[in-house]
Amino acid sequence: MSLNFDQILSGKKTVAIAGHVRPDGDCVGSCMGLYNYIKSVYPDIEAQVYLEPIPEVYKFMANTDTIKQADGVTEVYDLFVCLDCGDSRRLGASAAVFDNARHTLCVDHHMSDHDFAEDNYVFPKASSTCELLFELMDPDKVTKDVAACLYTGIVDDTGVFQYDGTSSKTMRIAGILIDKGIPFSKIIQKTFYEKTYKQNRIMAEALLSSKLYDDGRIIVTWLSKDTLDRYDVIASDTEGIVEALRSTKGVSVALFLHENNDGTYKGSLRASVDVNLVNVAKLYDGGGHTKAAGFTATGDPEHDIIPRLLDAIRKELDEQTK
Length: 322
Hints:
Elements: H1 5-8, E1 14-19, H2 25-41, E2 46-50, E3 79-83, H3 95-100, E4 104-108, E5 119-122, H4 129-136, H5 144-158, H6 168-178, H7 184-193, H8 197-208, E6 211-213, E7 218-223, H9 225-230, H10 241-246, E8 253-259, E9 265-271, H11 277-281, E10 287-289, E11 292-297, H12 301-321
Parallel strand pairs: 1-2, 1-3, 3-4, 4-5, 7-8
Antiparallel strand pairs: 6-7, 8-9, 9-11, 10-11
């Protein structure tokens, strides 16, 4: 499907923009990148971003103070643009706004995307939703503010250009964004590497309590709500833990769980080998990418969730070695 925003926004007066629950860098970057692009290029269009509270580290992006939560919103928008979200259920409260919109568009790169919108610009091999979003924009009209948002999303979802989804196209786009004058080194340092003292402490706790399975092929750790409270951290402070686990020498798959406020467990899976983790995440209606997937599970982590996931991970690893 050949699309650009001149076509997409033609005749539209109101646009709602939203992404998945618990927004990460690619989600926030794509939502705010599109919002700032519309405000700059199509000033007559009324746009609104609906997201759950975003991590503090992403609030440097222009106009994040205009983000609203979608609870109780009844407005009918001409267009709802769903970004970085492979399932309408992951929109959270924004799903109601999506259902009420006159037209819907999904821009995403998750292989679990179900083509749930009227128009779907979905390419699982892309590095990030921000990369796809840039392709729909006129590069000459991408401002410094827009570029900073898109670059952040690309950096976040490529692990600073180290994951398999990174391509020569990704690097070319990143170069164009850098040429807009963004503080690219500062963005990488602030959003990817810099950690608070609390984040370092919970990282240490997670690593100290981790366990190796299958001769070191699989590494697992989990954190209870009591542990998070003891270290005075919230869910977003656990970002980076699963990547630290994955980088352990000899590890093929890393699994990290942390308890949510409602007693469920948010799970993250990462692989350093070619293995389909989406099949593992599907055990709990999750999804994502072959080497990076997530889910939300209910049950006892030690006696139910982890043993079930270990069996599924072993099965996928065995398939990989056939």
